[in-house]
Specification:
By secondary structure, the chain is mainly beta. It is 7% helix and 43% strand. It has one domain.
Length: 168
């Protein structure tokens, strides 16, 4: 059984954000490019969450690159470009956005601003290029979805294949 998850590329949340966040030189996401980035790590409600596939798209509407991670292998670039994913049962996605403010998402929940710090590594120019998002450790409790009010921790380097420009 499949459920359809519409991912609006965090666009709605980014559009509603009024407050931008600056980054200090040397922080993950700062102009200095400093800060180390360990392996990707996601823990949801005390359980490790394996990232099996990574995809990335550029959203021209918000001038931001989104890096998605999935706990299953069947996500496709076609779905990422449309911003719509059909998750298999038990399937879920995460996302990282290097923008102002930076954002991370788990399922339908998006966490932005404040302590969220995302830095893109690499420059994707064409489909198939490799890109990564380095996330400074962030802990939050989603307000919606199966992990509502349960702690989620994200950190590290999330690698992805660049799919191209998002089309809505």
């Amino acid at each position: 059984m499949f459920k359809v998850a519409l991912i609006f590329s965090s666009g709605l949340c980014l559009a509603l954000a009024v407050l931008g966040c600056g980054k200090k030189d040397g922080e993950a996401g700062g102009e200095g490019g400093g800060g180390s980035c360990g392996p990707a790590k996601v823990v949801a409600d005390g359980k490790a969450w394996e990232v099996k596939k990574g995809l990335a798209v550029y959203d021209p509407k918000y001038k931001a690159t989104l890096v998605y991670g999935f706990n299953y292998d069947s996500a496709s670039c076609e779905s990422a470009i449309k911003g719509m994913f059909q998750h298999p049962e038990g399937g879920e996605s995460i996302r990282m956005v290097d923008s102002s403010p930076d954002a991370v998402g788990f399922g339908a929940h998006t966490q932005m601003g404040g302590e969220v710090n995302v830095e893109l590594q690499g420059k994707a120019e064409k489909a198939g290029d490799k890109i990564a998002a380095c996330v400074k450790e962030i802990k939050f409790k989603p307000a919606v979805g199966p992990y509502k009010d349960k702690e989620v921790t994200m950190s590290g380097k999330f690698e992805a294949e660049f799919c191209g420009e998002m089309k809505r």
